[in-house]
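Pasting as-is:
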Amino acid sequence: MSLLIDVATLQEWQQDPELRIFDVRYSLQDAGLGLRQYQQAHIPGAQYVDLGKDLSGPVISGQTGRHPLPDVDQLVSRLQELGVSNRSRVVLYDDGSHFFVPRLWWMLSLWLGHKQVFILRGGMKSWLAESGEVSSEIALYPSGDFQPRLNPEVMIDAASIPAFVKDGGLLLDARAPERYRGEIEPLDVRAGHIPGAHCLPCAATVDEQGHFQRAEKLRELFSDLEGKDVVYYCGSGVSACQSILGMVLAGLPPARLYPGSWSEWITDGSREIATGE
């Protein structure tokens, strides 16, 4: 079945003792917003997973980007604390923008190899519109025994980027075009893009309501990528996961991710940057 599920499907699954629902709401401008929203009202049975605390490692000035990947053992331990096993059916949702939820999808499905990871289409917005049933109760589950099937080939590091581009690889920037061109930079200390990169924004993968485009529209968006070796990056390794998910929904193999992305690239003054087209 599709990894995007609707509200009716999630309602059917809510009696499954192996179901784990994760609320991934977050804001780059207000890191505590998602947790406050969860505490106020969430899908019954859901647990909160924090982008900054659970899905990112420590930020080291001058070395890492804004959301470095966490230590894999610590991540697996956290998932076990949340009740995840290899048998679990895991459903993820955010506010409906599908901006943050792909990061956890990428980590669980592509990096850690969990086989049953799904995303609620339209997130909390769809749930409220079609169900309305919410809870403020903090869900607790027995510890799980999840064992990852690690796949390090789904990512690439900064040191490998120049050779990748030189050898003809396709490096894509998921940020907005004006950030790619270096005209604005609302989050990082330097503006521009990695030399050799092309701009294909993650925003193109969703419609005006924030729902992922249909498969045929996504195939059209990514039509030039077939058969190519693709790496995606963004500002900090979050929104690029939305683009990679879009590729999967289009029926294409997923691009590799440069997790550190632009915010890590610019920590080393010897790395070149480019502006404009």
